[in-house]
Amino acid sequence: MLTYSLAHWMAFLSTAILLNLSPGPDMAFILGQTARHGRRGGIAAMFGVWSGAALHVAMAALGLSAVLATSALAFSLVKWIGAAYLVWLGLQILLRRGTGEASGVAVPSTPRPGAIFRQGMLVSALNPKVAVFFLAFLPQFVVPGAGPAALQLALHGGLIILVAALIEPPLVFIGDRLARALSDHRRLGTWLEKALGGLFVTLGVKLALSER
């Protein structure tokens, strides 16, 4: 039960690594929170995104993701909610007034891990393209006779999240170091924050215009 060949694991893990390295709303959110709130913010964002991904894996294993894949109404509803949420996050950043003393030294923002976690979970969970992706990708690695299909889907989906848990923490620590190194350059920091806000708005618009 749940026995696979070496070739199977090599194909799956290499694909999982490439998937986790590809840019997207999840990665942008994690790195953005790291830049804004430091290591704690990045870690909270990671756990939130992983929780949202786990929800998609559970939906795929239970067959619920098929609803998004086959129903144009359900897909569009989740898509527009997710797009609106990304745009809202971006506008919050763009319209936020900078904080600082008259001396020009920036006051570091205080991370709120709970709020960042919830935002990360919503960024991932409200992206219907992720649900459709898992529904299309995971069945390719279901091997007849290796065990119940739902269990195989859950196993491979969980391993994708595990690969993310190995890849993303180093990126958060590197991003935190870069943010600290640039902390004295207030104008550059402000520009990067506005660029991040613009990125979220762009990702939201891109999601809104996407098709299944």
Automatic annotation (TrEMBL):
The keyword Membrane is annotated on this UniProt entry: yes
Keywords, sorted A to Z: Cell membrane, Membrane, Transmembrane, Transmembrane helix
Pfam family, one: LysE
Keyword Lipid metabolism recorded: no
Localization per Swiss-Prot or TrEMBL: Cell membrane
Transmembrane segments: 6-22, 43-67, 73-95, 116-137, 149-167
InterPro entries: LeuE-type (IPR001123)
Membrane topology annotation: Multi-pass membrane protein
GO molecular function, one term: amino acid transmembrane transporter activity
Top-rank taxon, per record: Bacteria
Gene Ontology CC: one annotated term: plasma membrane
Protein name (record): Threonine/homoserine/homoserine lactone efflux protein
Source species taxonomy: Bacteria, Pseudomonadati, Pseudomonadota, Gammaproteobacteria, Oceanospirillales
